[in-house]
Amino acid sequence: MTKKNRKILIAILVVLLASASVYLAYYSPTLPPKNPTDADISKTMPLMDTFVSIRAISSSMSETDIHNAIKDAFSYAGTLENMLSIYNPESELNKLNLEREINPSPDLLSVILAARRVNEFTLGFFDPTVVPVLKKHGFYKDMDDKILDNIPELDYGVGFNNVRIDDISGRVFLENNAWLDLSGIAKGYIVDRIAGSLRGSGIETFLVNAGGDIYCGKGPAGKNWRIGIREPGRENMIAVLDLELAAVATSGDYENVIIDEISGEPAAHIIDPKTFTVSGVLPSGFTVIAQECVTADAFATGMAVMGPKRSVELAENIDGVEVVAVKSSGRKSEIFISGGAEKYFSEKGNR
User: Fold this and answer.
1) In a designed cystine with 243, which of 40, 184, 208, 216 is the match (CB 3.0 to 4.6 A)?
2) Average of pLDDT values for 2-18?
3) Which of 166, 174, 158, 206 is closest to 26 using CA atoms?
């Protein structure tokens, strides 16, 4: 049955558990084997408010050359983080936020164009202009005052219709005092650029993991990479994915939890751009599989707002995007799976 002919296929698994939120983890107990003569180098560094790991394998490059390639990839990633972060007062993103219009670099323009695309596909549920709402609820407490004080108190600039892009010149305009926070898409973009940097150095077999935003290059020894979706704080896996030349990312309302300055209750970083409300903490997660991590990251962010049923329906109607969503209610967890995601499931890992 093809994707177009099938309106929706939801596989619901019921699991009794104390905490049902899910996140991506590199499924290390079942690493694919590599050839004994291959050079195999791994490195982990703090970046983008998480730990970023690169594992690179090559049969033709020396360990020194692989180390240098990984070093170059991390250096490039750091440059991109500084460019795209709303927390960096000197970032190019904040230059746009403060000056209201600029001719952006190719990287910033690429991220904004990708954000516009996902905003349209999700009917506005992925929206990086919710900055005033995040500020109002206390999510930017550790931000530099010269940026925080400039974020508007009023929310009339919320909505991607306030971001205008000249498709000829590439110039970007923020109207109605709109602000952009690209945190829900930039990490995926940077993971893709790390992958591109490794390929440019001659490495094809690699895995990049940025706190659950993952890109899988070619698998070692002709085997796919195995990525586990599991419950936080527990060892059991909800599913195991077999991936190669594909990306996967997870977003959930258990991440970045604060005490809401308005309600005084625990609140997640998930903002509904339709109602300007903040999600409470009822553990849930949305894992998206796509060809690029920028796509997986942004759709996972938007789907966390949409909810599981609408997320599966959306994935069923977009080529190259699949989702595994979990929703918890007390001790019961329902898992919703788009039909095309089944082809990525590892039979051994999901028995």
Assistant:
1) 216
2) 32
3) 206
DSSP 225-243: EEEEEE-TT---EEEEEEE
Helix spans in 272-321 (H): 293-306, 308-316
Phi, psi dihedral angles at 34 (to 5 degrees): -120, 165
Q: Which residue has the higher pLDDT, 274 or 5?
A: 274
Residue 40, beta-bridge partner list: 57
Query: In 2-74, which ranges are E strands?
Result: 13-16, 23-26, 39-47, 50-58
Q: What is the pLDDT of residues 171-229, one digit of tens each?
A: 999 999 999 999 999 999 999 999 999 999 999 999 999 988 999 999 988 889 999 88
Map out the domains of the chain as residue ranges. Answer: 1-32+224-346, 92-181
The fold for domain 92-181 equals: T-fold (1.10.3980)
CATH of domain 1-32+224-346: 3.10.520.10
Of 137-151, 268-282, 303-317, the least confident: 268-282
| Number of Cβ within a 10 Å radius of residue 3 | 16
Say whether pTM exceeds 0.90.
Answer: no
The Cβ of residue 209 has, within 10 Å, a number of other Cβ atoms equal to 23
CB 129 within 8 A of CB 96: no
